[in-house]
Amino acid sequence: MVLGLPRGGVPVAAEVARALQVPLDVIVVRKLGVPAQPEYAMGAIGEDGVTVVSNDVIELVRVSARDLERVEREQRELLDSRLMALRSVRPREPLIGRTALLVDDGIATGSTMRAAVRVARAHGAARVIVAAPVAPPDVVSMLLRDADDVVVLEQPEPFWAVGNWYEHFDPVSDDDVVALLTHAMLPMSCDVTLVVDGGHLHGDLVVPPAARGVVVFAHGSGSSRHSPRNRWVAERLQTAGMATLLIDLLTEDEAGLRSNVFDIDVLTARLRTAVAHLGALPETHHLPVGLFGASTGAAAALCAAADTDHRVVAIVSRGGRPDLAGPALGRVMVPTLLIVGGDDEVVIGLNEEAAAQLPCVHRLAIVPGASHLFEEPGTLEQVADLAVTWFAKYFDESGNDIEAVASTGPVGRG
After folding, report:
1. E strands within 7-68?
2. What is the rounded distance in angstroms from the CA atom of residue 333 to the CA atom of residue 307?
């Protein structure tokens, strides 16, 4: 989780979150300054009533309980006022067990950032990293005693002030911060075009903020990327924080010939091309891939994963024909979920035979009362729930590690 310090740190944090493809939030803190020396921190406060105090400082400067209470009350009022503006668009996400990357536009004395580190730990962060474009070297050394790591690009001496190191250092308003938080929560969507031997394949890519994985849809015979059933399932996956790519595996001319939709070799090659394309896009290159196949698309998904593409970590088949994958079934090592309608008796038998040949973790889920197309009320919802659960499990187990992604960026370490 990238956490910007309002207000000036949030524009910088937004760029870091975008580059790392991780969630953006703010960490709103107020330093508790010693009454006679406000810059000298004796503690800090954060959201949800978090208070952190330094007993050593309080004893050293002999701060009374009454003075501490007064300072905390004053700072709490200021903190609550800012929270009212910012939390209207971005409820605070829990930090328990997560890596908190605290970002500011620069660090002068380090007292506010030290307060933020303490508050992040009090909120349960497992690891706290401080990051800023510029800070004096002695402050970097000091922060290394509080944080698990400190990333600072420039450490000039003498330092003077943060603004001295910017060409443009315009004030950042609460409205600016709200706009950045709102934008960070919107999904990215774009058209995808792949060049293949037969012409062009067209697809629709949607990437939610901080996506946990990307699911490629391989539709079946007589369908396309505009399939209302697949698009409905895709929207459910997007709501669960997963990116989706709905793509036609045949050109318009090819789709007109019925035999092409049963050409598993062609469909498989096209699906592999789509997965490789996702690996080249900055929005999805770091994400594990899931394949969602329907009808003949299920066979293509299994064949595409049979040659051990480490990016593909899970497969879901909806009313699929996995039997058409043939000998490739014995080479599939990717966890596979086969979903079949309870009234689709012929396809149930074909899926049972295919499941018996799978050496991987697999499950056959039968939706009672559903036909081949899952048109009955509530049946497609069950498909979506099963798919979300399956993909979430294996995306989360795939090692999509935020810290590993962060460590590959072009940063200097203090």
Report:
1. 24-26, 30-34, 37-45, 51-53
2. 9
Per DSSP, 9 falls in state H
Question: What pLDDT is attached to residue 313?
Answer: 95
CATH number of 2-185: 3.40.50.2020
Q: Sheet harboring 312-318: ordered strands across?
A: 188-196, 199-207, 243-247, 214-218, 289-294, 312-318, 336-341, 362-367
280-285: long-range contacts (C-beta < 8 A, 24 or more apart)? 281/205, 283/21, 283/188, 283/205, 283/207, 283/243, 284/205, 284/207, 284/211, 284/214, 284/243
Task: Write down the architecture of domain 188-396 according to CATH.
Answer: 3-Layer(aba) Sandwich (3.40)
| pLDDT, position 286 | 87
The pLDDT averaged over each successive group of 10 residues in the chain (414 residues) is 92 89 86 82 82 83 90 90 80 87 92 88 94 95 94 93 91 89 80 86 89 90 77 92 92 75 89 92 90 94 83 94 96 96 96 96 96 93 96 83 35 30
Q: Is it true that 2-185 and 188-396 share their CATH fold?
A: yes
Non-local (6+) Cβ contacts of 356 within 8 A are none
CA dihedral 106, 108, 110, 112 (to 10 degrees): -70
Domain edges within the chain: 2-185, 188-396
- What pLDDT score was predicted for residue 385? 96
Tokens (6 digits) for 298: 């299920």
What local confidence, expressed as pLDDT, does residue 305 receive? 93
